[in-house]
Specification:
Elements lengths: L1 H35 L37 E2 L10 E2 L3 E13 L7 E6 L7 E5 L3 E8 L8 E3 L20 E7 L5 E6 L6 H6 L4 E6 L1 H5 L10 E9 L9 H4 L9 E4 L2 E2 L1 E6 L2 E8 L6 E5 L5 E6 L2 E9 L2 E3 L4 E7 L8 E6 L2 E10 L27 E6 L6 E2 L11 E3 L5 E7 L9 E5 L5 E5 L14 E4 L4 E6 L5 E7 L2 H5 L3 E6 L1
Parallel strand pairs: 1-14, 3-6, 5-10, 11-15, 14-22, 23-26, 25-32
Antiparallel strand pairs: 2-3, 3-4, 6-8, 7-9, 9-10, 11-12, 12-13, 15-20, 16-19, 16-21, 17-18, 17-20, 21-22, 23-24, 26-30, 27-29, 27-31, 28-30, 31-32
The structure holds copper (II) ion (CU).
Length: about 500
């Protein structure tokens, strides 16, 4: 008996030692990665580096494989830069009209689509910090819509959420002053229950904010030459080349098997061998993208949702969830005339980059400093707000509740900085990534599960991935009063009620 007890004790101690060692090793790996390899966001969740997070967690939201069956490449379509109706030294006036139309994406029948001032997507609105902006918005659709300015710090009465529907043939004016720094933002509809369908049909456009800093920075800024908008979306085309949203709508996020960039299938750009700048916008209803270059070389992320990062961050992979943006710079100085390079999403080709002229044998380095954002990552104050995202499909909820236009969920004071602790209650192994989006502000990420966020998430954000089982702390300060929305940016989750309202007083 005594011998048996000793053996049992020995085996038990051995087991304990193994478990403790493995735990320490895993934690060491995780910490080490965060300290030394901040740029590799995706690696944290790959099975081989972090088995705790489960198999293929980063891809868990993607349900349809990308086929991209186009035989030919097409020159990348560029959204027009919208001409102002009128411009003074202090004010600018634009008109935006939603309309239906038909669009040629591929051979065969035209596709019935929606667009702003055109048949698919919209023009680029260029505005400046300090400028007074006046937008005339007109709805020529046969259904209600709204004009939401994703990422703009504006009063809630012009924010264009579900409170501000515009009837068919209706018009509204939007007046605001640009109170924020240079950034690539976007606009899209946000009518109650119809956002997924209207965005899928084509309603989305970009807003470029410029300021003295962006004027002064030596970055590529020649539109369509070395500075490109990249609105990436996925769509299904039926046998008649139609989108048919109602038939393919998925309550956990509608995805397609064909990638579109600015409405172009299999796009290419022709560039010189210089630095090029891609303004990436995940304009998809639900798909996550993991961008990389076909040669697996580094690129530099220079901006996040709400403006420039403090410095260019070297990356080899970049994940964007729906609603998220990032500006990247690719140094092509080592390439020769005739070379090509692909921007990839995993194994799918997103954009072909063809070098057609050699001008820059030495390369022009990016500016070392881009911005001056300071964040107190050590702020461990008790959170002012705690919030949970839960459920899937029609059961999605925030704090256990679904959206009710008549319920104010939260309150905040203008000009007071708050810490929000947001938890995705979905199971680590089987749950979904919920992209959290907050209207009316740009916020900072303090930590993800207690770890300082990767460098490319240390800038201004309005949309962030909440990974299954994860808790994210953010620092929020509203500068405008009114009622603002917060929600999941999987558009079908939003339409299903994964949305709440905060009143700022
Ligand atoms: Cu969601």
């Amino acid at each position: 008996m005594k011998k048996n007890t000793l053996i049992t004790l020995f085996l038990f101690s051995l087991l304990l030692l193994i478990v403790v060692s493995i735990t320490l090793l895993l934690n060491f790996n995780k910490t080490n990665r965060l300290l030394t390899n901040n740029e590799d966001r995706t690696g944290m969740f790959n099975t081989d580096t972090n088995p705790m997070m489960g198999n293929g967690q980063m891809r868990s939201n993607n349900t349809a494989d990308i086929i991209n069956d186009s035989q030919t490449q097409n020159k990348l379509k560029l959204p027009p830069l919208l001409e102002s109706d009128q411009e003074t030294s202090t004010d600018i006036f634009y008109t935006l009209t939603t309309q239906s139309g038909t669009t040629a994406f591929k051979d065969g029948p035209l596709t019935e689509t929606y667009g702003y001032n055109g048949s698919y997507l919209g023009p680029i609105l260029r505005i400046r910090k300090g400028q007074n902006v006046h937008l005339t918005t007109i709805n020529k659709l046969n259904e209600n819509t709204s004009f939401h300015w994703h990422g703009l710090k504006i009063p809630s009465n012009v924010d264009g959420g579900p409170h501000s529907p515009i009837q068919p043939d209706g018009t509204a004016t939007v007046d605001f002053t640009v109170m924020q720094e240079a950034a690539t933002l976007w606009f899209h509809p946000h009518p109650e229950g119809l956002t997924g369908e209207q965005v899928y049909n084509g309603l989305a456009g970009l807003i470029y904010i410029e300021d003295e800093n962006s004027d002064a920075l030596d970055l590529p800024k020649d539109y369509g030459v070395n500075d490109f908008p990249i609105i990436i979306q996925d769509r299904f085309f039926d046998e008649n080349n139609q989108f048919n949203y109602e038939d393919i709508r998925n309550i956990n996020g509608t995805q397609g098997d064909t990638l579109l960039v600015n409405g172009t299938i299999s796009p290419y750009i022709e560039v010189k061998n210089e630095q090029i700048r891609l303004r990436l916008v995940n304009g998809s209803n639900a798909r996550n993208y993991q961008f990389k270059l076909s040669n697996e070389e580094f690129f530099s992320q220079i901006a996040s949702d709400g403006g420039f990062l403090n410095e260019p961050i070297q990356m080899d992979t970049l994940q964007l969830v729906p609603g998220e943006r990032a500006e990247i710079a690719i140094d092509l100085s080592d390439y020769k005339n005739g070379d090509t390079l692909q921007l990839m999403d995993g194994n799918a080709e997103v954009l072909s980059i063809k070098i057609v002229e050699e001008i820059d044998p030495d390369g022009i380095p990016l500016p070392k400093t881009l911005n001056d954002i300071s964040t107190n990552f050590d702020n461990v104050s008790v959170p002012d707000k705690e919030m949970t995202f839960s459920g899937m499909g029609n059961m999605v909820a925030i704090d256990g509740k679904q959206f009710d236009m008549n319920r104010i969920n939260l309150r905040a004071k203008k000009g007071i900085t708050e810490i929000w602790e947001i938890t995705n209650l979905n199971a680590m192994m089987s749950g979904m990534i919920h992209p959290f989006h907050l209207h009316g502000v740009q916020f900072k990420v303090l930590d993800r599960n207690g770890e300082i966020p990767p460098l490319n998430e240390q800038g201004w954000k309005d949309t962030i991935a909440l990974y299954p089982g994860e808790t994210v702390r953010i620092e929020v300060e509203f500068s405008k009063e009114g009622i603002f929305m917060y929600h999941c940016h999987i558009l079908e989750h939003e339409d299903n009620g994964m949305m709440g309202q905060i009143i700022v007083e």
